[in-house]
Amino acid sequence: MRLSGSITALATPFTAAGDIDFPAWERLLRAQLEAGTQAVVVAGSTGEAAALFDDEYDRLLAAAVEFAAGRMPVLAGTGQSNTAKTVRFNRRVAALGADAALVVTPPYVRPTQAGLLAHFRAVADDGGLPVVLYNVPGRTGCDMVPETVGELSVHANIVGIKEARAEEDRMAALLPLRREDFAVLSGDDPTAVRAMLAGADGVVSVASNVVPATFRRLCDLARGGDAAGAEALDEALAGLYHFLGVEPNPIPVKALLALDGIGHGLRLPLQPLSSAHAGQAARLHAAIRQLEQRSRADAA
Predict the structure, then answer these.
(1) Which of 13, 54, 232, 251 is the most exposed place for a label (fewest CB within 10 A)?
(2) Among all residues, which ones are annotated catalytic?
């Protein structure tokens, strides 16, 4: 598997009663496919994986796999705080048809680098799926350093890393690890263009939930070496990047999706966007609709 370009970490839409809204889920998937999104992640942190029951997770993933039907890869978020549970989880999503597993460093338990090596090797050996490493220390309390990634990158079943740290030196340390069989992906929307212009393969994005065609265009420009074009489009997205950080992810992006009629809220302990940001959401929504329409017209 070779992952590249615009990859969307999908939000999970709920009905007003709090159940998964499967018609809205299909609309979200269709919008991604039609916009040229190059892969999707189901039930990552943006998808509120921690709030899903096992049967909901399975139905959500199965519906995505059925809809995608091989037209775009479907990655499943599977990282757990225990290695054996992660292996079992990977086998489960493999049986449901996922193309790869996005496996976050074990949350909360704060393993050593040696523990991370042993963990990811076990998951890659026994989980039954290609593994994309995921480093997001702000959520997990654990930072997987580039030296550890380098050791893991040579494993035949580890196919890439999503790096969510935004520092330029972190991405610079990872980029030499890129090979045909190991992708380096940004996990930070505001610095993704910088990373791709430096050589990163793509981005696993939150923003592309609401502007998928624009993000496909952004990735094409940056990966094609058009710095001026990519940076200009990136600047047009600066307001969106800022808004997506005003409250914890996925609160802001789900507020924007709700304005598109996709979903009706979140599950506790997350709460809907506070009223202080409602006006900003409405103004931004109008602006990004125009930007998305231009991007779709340019791609036509």
Answers:
(1) 54
(2) 134, 162
